[in-house]
Amino acid sequence: MRKILLLPFSILYAIGIGIRNFLFDKKINRSIEFDLPVIGVGNLAVGGQGKTPMVEYLLELTTEIFKTGVLSRGYKRKTKGFKMVAMNSTARDCGDEPLQMKLKFPEAMVSVCEDRATGIPLMLAEDELDLILLDDAFQHRWVKPGLTVLLSDFNAPFFNDALLPSGNLRENKNAYRRADVIIFTRCNTYPDATIRKNYLKNISAIDSTKVFFTGLEYGNPVQFFTEEKKQNQLKDFKNVLLVCGIAKPKYITDYLNSLGIKFQSSLFSDHHDFTESDLKNIVSSFEKLNDVNAVIITTEKDAMRLMKFKNNSALLQNRLYTLTVKMKFQPEEKIRFDKIIFDFVRTKLHQHN
């Protein structure tokens, strides 16, 4: 019923997006291309597609060989314009995801700017870069990446979805044709040949060798607000308060349930800006566990937004752990994907030089 009621608004939205894409496709609006390698990472559906793990995978893959930079819009930051992300930046300065990337990859240049066409030259004025990763840039068509990676949740693929607001798509599903690589994320197990064939049938415009199926790999919880960054085995925690404000908390709750971990949840909206009142409620929920060995588990992204309380909350300092997560490829697909990335970067650099 909801989809039917919202369908007229989706039609209006489709018209607006269609006109915008037509102007770019006919080069009335002109996309800027840069000489150096630019990889765009994005999605068609809103929220929870795995963009941050993907960008971090690319950072881990490239930073030891190339001088890599990341440019993001800095979603929900309280600042405007171009800004370099520093180790002492805050989530309010630059957004939670760019700050997370900078803290994990301090050697990488991480910047935020709403206008990527403006942001890239400003990054290059700061330092000579070999490669720029554009985070959440599929709809930002003023810059044309040399390689575009499109992500889609395997459990809710874009080709079965509808346009906002009756569905979750930012633009028509056929826009996938602009992608060079498509990655289906959040696979619980690697799909069998029949399922893969069905997915490939729905994206027949893309070379099947450039379609990948990945999962998420959770690491050991890390005590976030301590100098030594102590790690524990998740299974060692017998009583947990889960605090998170992300698009799809179900994946974490399912993971905790699969390990048989006893937990209570304190859930917030995606990118929620935690307040003092929220902190009091978190403390109250923790105290109700009535267990001196209980811990708080949160995501790395949420920890960026909780960081402002680290000096005035003994509970967060002593009992808060972040659950790390990485993009996980099948071994054969990892080799194939990595080769696509390295071949693109090296070819583009060779042309540039």
CATH topology of the largest domain: Rossmann fold
Number of helices, where a helix is a run of at least 4 consecutive DSSP H or I residues: 11
Uncertain parts: none
> Which series of helices and strands comes N to C?
HEHEEHHEHEEEHEEEEHEHEHHEEH
Q: What can be said about the biggest beta sheet?
A: 8 strands, mixed
**Mean pLDDT over the residues:** 94
Strand content: 15-25%
Tally the structural domains.
2
What structural class do the secondary elements suggest?
Answer: alpha/beta
CATH class of the largest domain: Alpha Beta
Strand ordering within the main sheet = 3-4-2-5-1-6-7-8
Number of strands: 15
Q: Could you tell me how far the N terminus lies from the C terminus, measured between alpha carbons in angstroms?
A: 57 Å
**What is the CATH homology-level superfamily of the largest domain?**
P-loop containing nucleotide triphosphate hydrolases
Helix content: 25-40%
Radius of gyration: 21 Å
CATH architecture name of the largest domain: 3-Layer(aba) Sandwich
Basic shape: globular
